[in-house]
Design a protein that fits this description.
170 residues, mainly alpha, 73% helix
Length: 170
């Protein structure tokens, strides 16, 4: 009898993810340089999209830094894994991926199914962490939905707002 629940495919290693993120960043920088002087409407739309994606990536990095600080303070491995998922979510955003926005199923699972640690965090920090997972997933949804240039700026601001609220709740 075959297993009705096959094993999920192995997720890429952290080193492989880092290489892919670096390659994407290089590709984006090259494209930004090429588009910067263009006055064509399509080029301007593409430039706005790339700027929005890069801003979202930076906001995810700031949010992840806060989560890593919490993980260090509480010595909680699961919290560190959540921070890594927030960081990876920002790094994997890909406007060319119309299915998932570039975010792997493994990362989405961590962001969506994160269980808050019971000790060492204030109520405000726990609330901010809950919102952070949803906001990070919303980034990939905006990219996958094809409205990244319009939807990412307010989501990026929301991510920064959640991070600020969480830091203030310490």
């Amino acid at each position: 009898m075959t297993n009705p629940f096959p094993e999920p495919p192995a997720s890429p290693s952290p080193a492989r993810r880092a290489r892919a993120a670096a390659e994407r960043a290089d590709r984006v920088r090259r494209e930004l340089r090429e588009l910067a002087g263009s006055e064509q409407p399509d080029a301007q739309r593409r430039l706005a999209l790339l700027v929005a994606v890069e801003a979202a990536t930076a906001a995810a990095g700031r949010a992840a830094a806060w989560v890593f600080e919490l993980a260090a303070r509480t010595a909680d491995f699961d919290l560190a894994e959540f921070g890594a998922a927030v960081l990876t979510c920002g790094q994997e955003l890909d406007p060319a991926d119309h299915d998932t926005g570039g975010v792997s199923a493994d990362v989405a699972l961590v962001l969506n199914g994160f269980v808050l640690p019971g000790t060492g965090l204030t109520a405000g920090e726990r609330r901010a962490l809950t919102e952070l997972g949803a906001a990070a997933l919303a980034l990939s949804g905006a990219v996958a939905g094809g409205r990244a240039a319009a939807d990412l700026p307010p989501l990026t601001a929301r991510l920064d707002g959640i991070t600020g609220t969480g830091r203030a709740a310490a």
